[in-house]
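Notebook entry, structure prediction.
Reason for the run: the old model in the group folder had no record of what sequence produced it. Starting over properly, with the input documented here first.
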Amino acid sequence: MESNKKNNSKIIDSKLKTAFTIVEVSILFVIFLIVAFLVAPLSLDDTMQAKNVSNWKRVQGDFANIFYTINSQKDTENFDFNNTFENTIKPEVKTDIIPYKITYMNGAYPNTDYRFSTFKQTNKKATVAYKFYDQPQDGILGLLMYDVNGQVGPNVWGKDVFGFNIYEDKFEPFCKDKQNSIQDKDCSRTGTGLCCSNWYLIGGKLN
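New structure, fully documented this time:
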């Protein structure tokens, strides 16, 4: 009788130990899921951002070639920069698309300087938009916007949208003439994100 009680006690103790082990494992599993849920979006966002920045860096070479083509025609008779630019970029454009909303990094809607009325989808499914001033402003003939992943979000300046100032002899990323401290401050979640266009090219990071 006493032996049976001892055996039953051992069985109960064994079951309790097993039960505690399952509870402990369950708690650890839940903690793991919570951490994964919090970390995964950040990791995915970082990966997408790195891809967008890489695409923007690649675009520099494409536009350098476009400008080389434009410059090679400057000595031709009746040269017109605007028309030559549009004819040069035309082979890279697949179709016109309906304009979509693009915001600053801080969530604000851009002023009229950085809004564009005509959006074009490139052969690489990016979006390009540009406009020329009636008169050059500080040597700048116009502005060009480039959304590296097209209509796919986030459609935010400094995340997947970047830009050039268009000069007569070059394309220059926004804020290239600004101090690094200004670019760093603007390329942040409280800034416009416009300066990210150059900040990333010189090795800066999003703050």
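Summary: The first strand starts at residue 93 and ends at 97.
The old model has been moved to the deprecated folder.
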